[in-house]
UniProtKB/TrEMBL annotation:
Belongs to the fatty acid desaturase type 1 family. It is found in: Membrane. This is Acyl-CoA desaturase. Stearoyl-CoA desaturase that utilizes O(2) and electrons from reduced cytochrome b5 to introduce the first double bond into saturated fatty acyl-CoA substrates. It comes from Boletus reticuloceps.
Amino acid sequence: MAASSNEPAFIEDPNNIPAEAVPDNFVSYTLKLQEALPPVTWKNWYRELHWLHVFILFVPPTLGTIGTWYTPLRLKTGIWFVVYSLLTGFGLTAGYHRLWAHRTYKATRALEYTLAILGAGVVEGSIAWWARGHRAHHRYTDTDLDPYDARKGLFYSHIGWMIFKPRRNPGPADVSDLRSNPVVKWQHRYYLLLAFIMAIVVPTTVAGYGWGDWQGGFVWSGLLRLVFVQHSTFCVNSLCHWLGDKPYDNKLTPKDCVLTAVITMGEGYHNFHHQFPMDYRNGYKRYQYDPTKWFLWSCEKLGFATHLKRFSDNEVEKAELTVQLKYLHQKQEALAWPTEKSDLPVLTWEDYQRQAESRTLICIAGYIHDVSDFIDKHPGGPYLLKKNIGKDATAAFFGGLYDHGNAAHNLLAMQRVGILLGGAPHGLEEKFVPASQHLRVSRYNEYST
């Protein structure tokens, strides 16, 4: 499809985009001009499989599951399984994710090489490939340019996007910094060799030479450890967009959940992460489970990491308050509120007394109230209300007989039917404004003049 004269030419190479070529409506513009592949169906699914990814995702768990029937788990191998899972997991979370995809801190060359080598042991692609996709995921979250689009379902965002060939290219992302990084370039060049050594050779030889469990090292610390860590990190794209709540922004799918934080080595506070991706923490609060945060903090103390970025507490709390106010506003709009003063009729004292002869009307703080529906429910007895019909019960309501609380003030306001001409509120503002309205969330149109 040809672009119109007032639109820039379609960008053929999404990895090399001149700034002047990017239209403001980039997502809709790209979706309009970039033709997607036909959808995967029951008739063509086998032709759309990405066979290398299918092999990586299904062969290790199959071989590992079969191997468990013939390979009992020894204690030392089990401990090594946990330790090596953490080490290679940090390669992904602290390295691929927080260092290279988001640049949340600076690492010494020694730490960079260490994380690059450990990350290769999870077999999720090179740093350059992984970080490019992840940056696109953040820039185009919940759009068709998001490579792991959570709107397409839990299976798709977990592994479906890897099993099948993508229907369209992921949105472009700037990776110029990664192209110039010598560690990233080195790892990308030798990735296949590094992946095989770190995923299979290292866990097998450590268990073999260490305590003579070659088979256990291969099955448990190699194959099954690989499956465990892979699906742990896959959950960042799937479960972290499905389980939990949205304390910092409720427009998109990322969510915060302590369960997914445990599963993903601290990546489960995903709503926070998507709002503040440059922060080295996912678990922003001190008590939140985020071992990667503690690992990086330790690296900083040991001199291996510097410039750990922390987003302003003021802005984080402001974002949290914004969502809370949105939810409060929604809850507020679902409730019934007193009639506005401007909609109430104004009565003289004589009119009030005359109507009170046939209606159960009581005057409190300048407002006329019809208490007919409540007179038999009054906790102090109906006689206390009956004795004040047609009278001013302000003093009695505000402590003369009983100093009523919030619930009574709120309920009384719902019974307003008029305003007394010349009537004045009693005492300070908190005495005549219902407690429920003291902190009422204003509508946008209430700010206009």
